[in-house]
Design goal:
680 residues; alpha+beta; OB fold (Dihydrolipoamide Acetyltransferase, E2P); 16 helices
Length: 680
């Protein structure tokens, strides 16, 4: 909800995931640049491995399948596997092919060869003899049949190092018993700092089916309170830290997991489900503990009143409604709906529009990152349909309120703890990172200024083609790929200019609004509790080095979660096209010597199409196999064009029609194939 897609990251609501991305790592662009330089001057950078400092073998193992390729050791092993039907059978030697194609095949010995030849398995590397072309390992377990959605999802989680194991009994022991109910004496009489806001009109706005509701909003006029012409906007966040205490098994586990992970068909929680979906979730019609922050807005300008600081308080609320984005949008658009809650939503939305204008005027970026939504079969969880996620003004309304609360939280904790506040920084991209965007724009006759975020934002706004409405979106997608990743950091480790959030054009930023699913927000809540004098600060919050280790772990877990989410999208896209092919529009987003990289807006797919036939058809190879095909093509890197052997010229951002289908390969592999259709 915080809108950081412009900052090299996204916060994915339930049921929404990032589309597969290609070559998003800057180091990959550097490698391509070095290779290009080598071709021009004839010098090829060459090195030799002289020693292994530290093994990076994964203790949990690697997802793999048995190699049954013809003429290979796996083929011979398959015969042994077929015969291995008794307990007395001798161990068979097999080659296991890891899912990660960067890894070599792994030689394993097992007596269960017959049972695992068609399974997705887990293997662990034990060693790599100097005289062997393959590392040696052993079979651990089977995840399920090859191609099965559950088995492949388990492989995705293993490869991304995302923990999907159940919570331990010691963790569940920390959860209050259900049903949990608000207690007047415990939560108000004995907590005089907590305000009773149960009469305040509050609602939440989330994706459909959302059960872990972190946040809710309120809006009321202050005329009756002696402040005519003013509004009080409230952002109410689940008070997770009232249930999640330091130095407990549940806190240690939440810190280790770092974040919840959203896959296409399931959610892996950072906290046990009774907390995420019940006790802490700000559901409609029930009393829940919250951490509230209030802002004074001028009803004329719809902007915060100058000189009036935000007010933080612990509270108890009773949400009037848990709305979806579509429901909230329908209410605001209905001119005949004058219900009090609808009036509140319109007031919040008016302020959100003004905040957004002010933020964009300051240089905040509005970029584009393709997000897709799957419609799943309720019984099998197989994808029935897939399409781009639709964003409404209601989404932007909630986004602006979350950004406002996060910025206010960053300012509050930094003021109280200048050296050990947990912040969210988005480093300014290095000039070389904009090379792909600048080349694409130059080839398209578009002038882009990347000297500052404001200059970039203005340039992107001006880069429009009336005859091609999607052109501007393509530019923003390319610009998004040039961004560095936003990361958590400890304030004392960075000077003020290094703490900025480039994408949001904010001098300070942090995460406060999603403590149910992000441990960073839990830390920020605890810092705010201490800053407000509500509780004594935990010792770990005053230890900058300990806080740095927490931030490093959260950053790693966030990246892993994103990788798992993207891989889950790729998997379900594969399953969807396994049942039916599709023909649709696509756009060239990059050119290569042996093909083009296309983006399919309808399905959010971005992948290479390699030239492998005179009729200029192509086949997607998401692993990059087949490099070297397309002989006879001519690449012009400056003009961003590639000319095929038949004379067809492809330019960046060209439109084309493609056919998408699944192509079966040898060794029980398959891939998503994209073929260019002839012009009509």
């Amino acid at each position: 909800k915080e809108g950081e897609g412009a900052a090299g990251e996204t916060n994915e609501p339930e049921g929404v995931s990032l589309a597969p991305q290609v070559a998003e790592d800057v180091s990959g662009d550097d490698a391509a640049k070095s290779a290009s330089g080598a071709r021009k001057n004839g010098a090829v950078p060459t090195g030799r491995v002289v020693g292994i400092v530290k093994r990076s073998w994964r203790e949990r193992g690697y997802a793999a399948s048995v190699d049954l390729g013809p003429g290979s050791a796996g083929a011979a092993a398959s015969s042994a596997a077929a015969a291995a039907t008794t307990a007395a059978a001798r161990a068979a030697y097999l080659l296991a092919i890891p899912v990660d194609r960067r890894l070599p095949k792994i030689r394993i010995s097992t007596r269960q060869a017959a049972a695992i030849v068609d399974q997705r398995i887990v293997v662990v590397i034990d060693g790599w003899p100097a005289d062997s072309p393959y590392p040696e390992g052993h079979y651990v377990k089977s995840l399920g049949k090859l191609g099965d959605a559950d088995a492949e999802t388990a492989a995705v989680l293993l490869e991304a190092d995302v923990d999907d194991r159940p919570f331990a009994p010691a963790v569940h022991a920390c959860v209050p018993p259900l049903p949990w109910r608000f207690d007047q004496r415990e939560h108000l009489t004995l907590q005089p700092h907590r305000e009773d806001l149960r009469e305040l009109r509050v609602c939440s706005v989330d994706p459909p089916g959302c059960r872990d509701i972190d946040d809710a909003l309120s809006c009321r006029a202050l005329d009756a309170d002696g402040h005519p012409g003013m509004l009080e906007l409230g952002v109410h966040i689940a008070d997770v830290t009232s249930f999640l205490h330091p130095e407990t098994a549940m806190d240690a586990e939440a810190c280790r997991r770092g974040t919840s992970t959203y896959l296409v068909q399931r959610r892996l929680d950072m906290l046990p489900k009774p907390l995420t979906e019940d006790i802490c979730s700000l559901r409609g019609g029930v009393e829940r503990l919250a951490f509230s922050v209030f802002f004074r807005f001028d009803a004329q300008t719809n902007l915060p009143v100058p000189g009036v600081s935000p007010r933080f308080t612990k509270s108890v609320i009773k949400s009037n409604a848990a709305l979806t984005y579509a429901e909230a949008q329908t209410m605001m658009d209905d001119a005949g709906d004058d219900a009090p809650l609808t009036v509140d939503l319109r007031g919040i939305n008016a302020c959100a529009r003004a905040l957004r204008r002010r933020r964009l005027d300051a240089g905040a970026l509005t970029l584009a990152s393709p997000e897709v939504r799957f419609e799943l079969d309720k019984e099998t969880s197989d994808p029935l349909d897939v399409g781009m996620y639709v964003t409404r003004e209601a989404n932007q309304m909630v986004e602006e309120m979350m950004l406002l609360a996060n910025v206010a939280s960053a300012e509050a904790i930094l003021k109280a703890y200048p050296s050990h506040a947990l912040l969210r920084r988005h480093p300014t991209p290095a000039p070389r990172m904009f090379d792909p965007l600048l080349k694409a724009c130059a080839a398209s006759g578009v002038v882009i200024d990347v000297t500052s975020s404001r200059a970039l934002a203005d340039s992107l706004d001006a880069a429009v083609r009336p005859e091609d409405p999607y052109f501007n979106t393509l530019l923003r997608i390319v610009a998004t790929r040039c961004m560095s990743q936003a990361v958590y950091c400890v304030s004392g480790a960075h000077a003020a200019p290094e703490r900025v959030h480039y994408g949001l054009a904010a001098p300070l930023y942090t995460h406060f609004t999603s403590p149910i699913r992000r441990y960073a927000d839990v830390v920020v809540h605890r810092l705010l509790n201490a800053a407000l004098g509500l509780e004594k600060p935990d010792a770990s919050l005053q230890d900058s080095e300990a806080l740095r280790l927490v931030a490093d772990n959260i950053n790693m877990r966030h990246r892993n979660s994103q990788m798992a989410a993207r891989a889950s999208v790729e998997l379900h896209t594969h399953i969807f096209f396994r049942k039916k092919a599709a023909e649709t529009e696509a756009r060239v987003i990059r050119v290569r010597a042996n093909g083009i990289i296309v983006f399919v807006p309808k399905f959010g797919i971005e992948a290479p199409v390699l030239f492998d036939a005179p009729e200029e058809s192509g086949v997607v190879d998401t692993a990059g196999a087949g490099a070297g095909r397309g002989s006879g093509t001519v690449l012009d890197e400056e003009a961003m064009t590639v000319t095929t052997s038949t004379g067809k010229v492809w330019r960046v951002f060209d439109a084309l029609r493609v056919r998408i289908e699944i192509e079966e390969l040898a060794a029980r592999r398959s891939r998503l194939a994209i073929r260019i259709l002839p012009d009509m």
